[in-house]
Design goal:
By secondary structure, the chain is α/β, with parallel strands linked by helices. 25% of the residues lie in helices and 33% in strands.
Amino acid sequence: MVDRSFGDPELAALYETLNPWRAGDDFCLGFVMSAGSVLDVGCGTGRLLRQARQAGHQGRLVGLDPAAAMLVLARRSAPRMEWVLGDLLTRDWHGEFDLVVMTGHAFQTLLSDEEVRLALRAVRAALADGGRFVFETRNPAARAWERWTPERVYQITGPDGAPARVWHEVERPVLGDRVTFTETFEVGSSERPVVSRTTLRFLDADTLSWFLYEAGLTVVEQYGDWGRGPCTPASPEIITVARTAL
């Protein structure tokens, strides 16, 4: 068994196959297309910004990600766009963007209150007056982690045609609002599974709104699913659109 993450080139190559374009991507693409300048935090392989450019976006599109292997793929597919290695705590922008997006539940990798506060201050600093911040987190009331079990195996075919099997397992017990789990990959004829270990934080809507308020951001829209349904205890997501406070 080998412990890796999506920073590994082999796993990065599987990312878009494991995470095909869905309703959430369409939702965020609409905001990107209506903004003149966009920062995609945790951009991964750059698919969202790449699609925006292909759809005719003429403004500034910047992708930020801490995984070099992901950015290699992003640059390969869209070499004339801005791809930046790092995260919100290591990069510094001031009033340069009309929109900041965080997709793929990237916000949940901010584990401490201090990380959340610093990241949101960086988002606020990066936004121009009236700019928007769009992101999603999983609704803790829906307890999605209870379905992350080894019995639920996903079978995919990688970009090289090799088959892969993927499954998840949560480390028990789950305490507080942080969930640690492993994602195991059996790729092709490899004799040793590849394992990625991740911890995510599950914040409720009220706590998210308070952190945003502290950072100078105001919630203007909030949904429980990608069809813009209301947030309820059964909603799978907390999808937030915030604006810089005036």
